[in-house]
Amino acid sequence: MPDQTTAIWILCLSFAVLLILRFPVALTLVASSILTLWYLDIPLVVVGQQMIQGITIYSLLAIPFFILTGQILGEGGLANRIVNLANLFVGRIRGGLALVNSVACMFFGNLSGSAVADASAIGSVMIPLMKKKGYAADYCVGVTISSAIQGVVVPPSHNLVLYAIAAGGVSISGLFLAGIVPGIILLSSLMLTSYIIAVKKGYPKGDPVVKAQIPGILFHGLLSFTPAVIILGGIISGWATATESGALAAVYSFLLAFLVYREASLKQMWPVLVRTFRTVLMVFFLIAASQAFGWVMAYLHLPDLITKWFLSVSDQPWVILLMINVLLLILGAPMDMAPMILILTPVLLPVCKAIGMDPIHFGIVLIFNAGMGLLTPPVGTVLFVGCAIGKVSVDAGTRAMMPFFLAMLVVLFMLTYIPALSMWLPNMFK
User: Which pTM does this prediction carry?
Assistant: First the structure.
């Protein structure tokens, strides 16, 4: 008769070995599940059944629309209008362009929900501009990539939707509300860090905005920001589901980018659709594979065993939360964001529930950790994108990012140990 302990070792070791051999994460999840079920003498058709079940969830339809909206806005040249809007508010402060960078990343991240898209769109505009004004190239990269992480926490982020599904139906509107205050705190910490460095290095103030241009900047900036309002307003008010709000935002973004501003021709819509399809295909395959892997873990009672282990180490919630944060920060370096959310949510959520942590609160902490992992080698995709745009080495970009990373660590522990920062708005709208 197959032994449960042996099956757990087969599942975990095969997963680790295949990852070390650089197999794609989704294929690794499927292969580990198949090997374990083969040892347990369970029909392998279960893997296919679970994979199909994993992607037959209505809420998943929101993800393609969110991704499409971000792709359209990036292609339609709306990043420049968002930069101009941010410059209107903070451009005249010492080191103003760095502050504009952070605020613009906040605004664009709110629209795209993707840190990589944020770094690419805003970085392509701000890094050359900052270098031209005398800012060090590595500093420009450090500011940009750190600020781009706001997109994974600030709603409407498709990562929050991923977590809601992985957690077994956590409220998407509750997660979106929970991300607002942490996003503001993160932005404030990044701006404070930028200002301190700017004063220390003597970086200049930004150029003044001509008064006659202010109404136009406000109008076009707010017009570009409307897709986020459509998504958030529809979901939080209950007027529309996440999927319906995403569809409306995608249509609005298309009309704005391709028919109103016309900075991109209709021919460019085809590459946008292709990129969206490729991204959605990868995400959905990963979700399907994670569903099969999660079923095997549940069959082996692995989450229960992990929960018992954590509680055996300490009965103090703050110690367990510290251990979880350290684990997530370590795993964030080699793992990309979506796999991290889908794999670790069913493993760590039971632990957090056992110590009285709300699933929404844990979701914000998990996604914040995973976002920080996008800045750290060897898989730090946002780090590599920023360094490529800024034409600096990865070592230089990493060093320049460290002051901001330390500020983010402070914010992470604030969010972990002060639940009200995440839960205040969701509780208010219950």
Answer: 0.88
| CA distance linking residue 367 with residue 275, whole number of Å | 24
DSSP for residue 376: S
For the record, the structure tokens of 79 come out as 């990043």
Query: Helix, strand, coil proportions of the chain in percent (round to 5)?
Result: 80, 0, 20
Reported as a pLDDT band with limits 50, 70 and 90, residue 1 is low
| Amino acid present at 329 | L
> Collapsing DSSP states into helix, strand and coil, what is residue 94?
strand
Q: State whether the Cα torsion 47-53-59-61 is positive or negative.
A: positive
User: Alpha-carbon distance 303 to 344, whole Å?
Assistant: 10
Q: How far apart are CA 74 and CA 118, in angstroms?
A: 9
Instruction: Count CB atoms within 10 A of the CB of residue 360.
Output: 24
To the nearest 10 degrees (0 to 180), the angle between helices 337-354 and 317-332 is 170
| For residues 370-383, average pLDDT | 84
SS3 call for 205: strand
What count of other Cβ atoms lies within 10 Å of the Cβ of residue 361?
Answer: 21
CA-angle at 307, arms to 306 and 312, nearest 5°: 95
CA pair distance 370, 357, nearest whole angstrom: 18
